[in-house]
Structure formats: C-alpha cells, structure tokens
Amino acid sequence: MSEYSQSRNESRILQAVNTLIVNGEIKHPKLSRFASISAITLSKDNAYATLYVSCLMDDGTLEVSVKALQSAAGFIQARLANVLKTKNTPKLTFVADTTERDAQRINELLDSIKS
Predict the structure, then answer these.
(1) Considering its fold, how many domains does the chain have in total?
(2) The CATH number of the domain where 56 resides is what?
(3) What's the domain range around 48?
C-alpha cells in the first residue's frame, strides 16, 4: 500500500473515531467526553491500528477512558467498516497518550534545576 493511501486511511480513522466520541455515540458511562484520539499508527497491511488517546482533564480520566474505548473497540470497528469501505477493517488497540503530561513534568524538573 502506498504511503499516501495509508496516511489517508489513518486520517479517516482518526476523524471517524473522534466524531463517535464527540457525538456521544459510544455509550460507555466511564468514557469522558473530553477524550480524543491524538494520533494513530496503522500497520502496513491495514490489519492493526494503534490509537493514542489524550484527555483534557488530568484527574485520572485518561486511563478510565482508554479502558472504556478498548471495551467498545468492537462497536467502533464495526462503525469504521461503514466509513472506510475497505476489504478489511483494522483491529483497534487504544493506548494512553501521556506526551503532554510527560512534557509538563520535564518542564517542571528543568525549572526546579534553574532555581
């Protein structure tokens, strides 16, 4: 598969899953409406997709939202099949994206060294 079509599929998956979250179509009580997909990695053969979840609220809702999305992965995959219209729909894995939290922690450590 060309890099262009893989990139296009990644962006379509990203947009579709974020739309499902924002519209409240994923009916899981523990899923935060502030959760969103920040990045996606799609395998070369479109068989697997790793979706990185970030959350605006930093009160422990990230891990809970990741578990909620992972439990709804079958539903999300079925909805993606309608959007992608490809032969195979990738198996979804959700992972917490802690990049922002880690960057903030590093900045705090650097500030403490300066003073």
Answers:
(1) 1
(2) 3.30.300.20
(3) 3-114
Strand boundaries in 18-71, DSSP class E: 35-42, 48-55
Q: What is the CA radius of gyration of the chain?
A: 16
pTM of the predicted model as reported, rounded to 2 decimal places: 0.84
What pLDDT, in 10s, does the model give residues 17-73?
999 999 989 988 888 888 899 999 999 988 999 999 998 776 678 889 999 999 999
Q: Where does residue 50 fall: left (phi above 0), alpha (psi -120 to 50 degrees), or beta otherwise?
A: beta
For 80-112, how does the pLDDT look when each residue is reduced to its tens digit (9 = 90+)? 998 888 888 999 999 998 877 777 888 888 888
Backbone angles phi, psi at 87, to 5 degrees: -65, -45
Instruction: Please return the burial class of 70, using the count of CB atoms within 10 Å of its CB with bins 0-12, 13-18 and 19+.
Output: middle
